[in-house]
Amino acid sequence: MSYLNLDEDLDIYKEDKVYFHLPDYHGHFRLNYLIATLLKEEPDVFYPDVAIGSVYGTFPSAIWNGGRVIFGGLASRDDMMQCYKAFNDLGIPLRHTFTNSLITEKLCYDAYCNEIMEHGHDGLNQVLVNAPDLEKYISENYPKYPILSSTTKRIRSVENAQRELEKGYALVVLDYDLNRNPDIFMMDNPGRFEILINAYCVDDCPRRVNHYKSMAQDQIHFGHVPMENPEEEIGPCEYIGDDFWTAMSNRRNTLKVEEIYGFYRENGFKHFKIEGRTTNDFDVLESYMYYMIRPECRDSVRLRMLRRMFLEQQAGPQQIMVMTPEQIKELQEKGQIQFNPNGGPSLDEMLAQSQNTSNCQNCDGSCEGGCNCGGDH
Asked: What is the C-alpha separation between 290 and 298, in angstroms, rounded?
């Protein structure tokens, strides 16, 4: 198996930059698109040499998905194409997290997952894998996709991580428990390894593999499937709900921003994965502020991002219902509306108001064009 010459890098990563890989191109679409356009329009608010290497994730309810359970209504063809176009037009690949380790040859023919792959089969977009049958199927049917080795494989030794790269993967995403292992700085081709910098999972989590397996089953069956052995039932992770700063303060394997731009970059690492596919927008935004935005610009950028994410999303044309006098009379005759029940305007006054197109509060609007009443016409 060889998907890429070991002496080559992916063309889009040729530059000497710090490439961040952002979570969830669908669930965090608006947030990720805003940060991507901000980087293009105002690069000076970012740390030097910051680039967005990919936006990873899946469309809802794709059975090939792994690492997290992502349910929801199936994305339409138009939804898929719009998502591809939004990021690809900025030179950013979508990276599909098709890392479900339980995918068999039969499940490789899933129509929905194949449609997702087909629309992005252009050499820019990427796919993460963790199932031999699916890996073989993708390499044969979608050869333009760079294939990456997933952190869900839980490769916890430096030697095995190096062997994984030698299999020919375009990139290998390291297990987060290797972040502080000094031997990673002795690996060949460090620029072909990606570091998960802010895992919400606790250090050395003994349940991580079982969680991945449980979520893989749930994704395939569109709901939770009890483990065959009840003793293996592990339930939800109690740590995944920690906020960004709590995780930063008590996870040994979380990298500090000065380490990324300092020692790690100096030793050849340039790919850094930010976790947060199923994390709320606020914590994901905070991770972007911390890792990508200059300290003196964070408060301003954070506020602008929040305003664009929420205020503009709520804003839109006001829907105003206007009734003709005839419609008002008809509803009154049917007893569906009443006027002047407690000293309010009479029906005649309401009818007159409905015919008055002026916004003036000081006259009836007949003076428009030459009015000295001071009203707002």
From this structure: 8
Q: How many residues does the chain have?
A: 377
CA dihedral over 115, 116, 119, 121, signed as positive or negative: negative
For strands 193-196 and 172-173, give the pairing.
parallel
d(C-alpha 186, C-alpha 180), whole Å: 13
Tokens coding 322: 């206007």
User: What whole-number distance in Å separates Cα of residue 376 and Cα of residue 358?
Assistant: 8
**Helix axes 29-41 and 298-306, enclosed angle (nearest 10):** 130
pLDDT digits (tens, 9 = 90+) for 44-95: 999 999 999 999 999 999 999 998 889 999 999 999 999 999 999 999 999 9
Reference 56, options 182, 133, 152; nearest CA is: 152
For the chain of 377 residues, list the mean pLDDT of each consecutive stretch of 10: 50 94 97 97 97 98 92 94 97 97 97 98 97 97 97 95 96 96 96 95 78 85 76 64 87 96 97 95 97 98 94 52 56 58 49 48 48 46
Architecture of the CATH domain 11-314: Alpha-Beta Barrel (3.20)
Tokens standing for residue 74: 């199936």
Q: Domains of the chain: which residue ranges? A: 11-314, 325-355
Q: Are 61 and 91 in contact (CB under 8 A)?
A: no
Of 166, 180, 159, whose CA–CA distance to 149 is shortest?
Answer: 166
At 278-289, the pLDDT tens digits run: 999 999 999 999
Sign, Cα dihedral of 56, 60, 64, 67: positive
DSSP-derived pairing of the beta strands 18-23 and 50-57: parallel
- State which amino acid sits at residue 2: S
Q: Is the pTM of this model over 0.70?
A: yes
Structure tokens at 267: 């030793």
Please, which residues bridge with residue 293 across strands?
Answer: 46
Which residues make Cβ contacts (< 8 Å) with residue 291, sequence separation at least 6? 20, 197, 198, 257, 260, 272, 274
Helices (H), the chain: 29-41, 77-88, 111-119, 132-141, 158-166, 208-221, 244-250, 257-259, 265-266, 281-292, 298-306, 312-314, 325-333, 347-355
d(CA 166, CA 168): 5
